[in-house]
Amino acid sequence: MRVRTTLGVAAAGVAAATGLALTVTTPAQAGPVATAASAASAASAASDMAVLGAPDLLEGDELPPHASSPWYAGDVTPGLPEPTPFCLEDVLPAEDVLHRSFWTELDANAVQVVVTAPDEAAARDLTARLNRAVRECAAAYEQQVPGGSATWRDYGRLRVEDGARVHGLVTSHPEIANDVALYGIGRDGNTVTVVRWAQMGTFQHAPVADFRETTRTAVEKLLG
């Protein structure tokens, strides 16, 4: 089992090694040349972080196959996605995080978030809190959404690295169609990943078996 250094430390090491200044410039302040230079620097830093041992994230073809559309994958990006995965907004940390978003030509979408915790104890605690947040999400949704209903299902543990668990959640609203989501939460050493898949529908539309394999792959790839 290997314990990763935090992404923030890795990024700082890249900056020091390459002589990059870690300067933040807002879009309003940056012109086209500055924006292009910033993008190039970010891409270079991301590449160097991979060499230093940043987690390896899923590819589109590792998600559950869609019946009528390929999966498209965004870039691996530092920070949390926008929006943060439903149910986990108050649990996922904002630092030492990578994410990658996925989408189809229809309504199915997915996102993977990877967190590098300071140590294994912190990673275990984060994993427990993430699983608890999904378990309790249905009840919270019904309290916060008048007329809404939600159902949670436990799709069991996976024997992979330091363990993973798969959850299912269906939410409904009187004026909106049902949505079904699957969550895979797993850990390897001090690295934690969350994979969320979602589309319109109910549990009968959820590709549970394929998503369990996606979750297994996501955890196995954490050490690159």
Could you characterize what this model shows?
This protein is an alpha+beta fold. The chain has two domains: 54 residues; 166 residues, Protein Transport Mog1p, Chain A, CATH 3.40.1000. It has five helices and eight strands, in the order ααββββααββββα. Strands 1, 2, 3, 4, 5, 6, 7 and 8 form an eight-stranded antiparallel beta sheet that branches.
Outline the fold blueprint.
Layout: H1 7-18, H2 32-51, E1 72-73, E2 77-78, E3 97-103, E4 109-116, H3 120-135, H4 137-144, E5 149-158, E6 164-173, E7 176-188, E8 191-200, H5 208-220
Antiparallel strand pairs: 1-3, 2-3, 3-4, 4-8, 5-6, 6-7, 7-8
Helix pairs in contact: 1-2
Overall form: globular
Q: What is the correct CATH architecture of the largest domain?
A: 3-Layer(aba) Sandwich
As a percent range, the share of strand residues is 25-35%
Residue-averaged pLDDT: 83
- Reported by name, the CATH topology of the largest domain is Protein Transport Mog1p, Chain A
Contiguous runs where pLDDT drops below 50 for at least 5 residues: 5-52
Instruction: Give the tally of β-strands.
Output: 8
H/E order of the elements? HHEEEEHHEEEEH
Class by alpha and beta content: alpha+beta
Question: Gyration radius, to the nearest Å?
Answer: 18 Å
CATH class value of the largest domain: Alpha Beta
Tally of DSSP helical segments: 5
| Cα-to-Cα separation, first versus last residue | 12 Å
Total count of domains: 2
Q: Approximately how much helix is present in the residues?
A: 25-40%
Organism: Allostreptomyces psammosilenae
Signal peptide: 1-30
Keywords: Signal
Protein name: PknH-like extracellular domain-containing protein
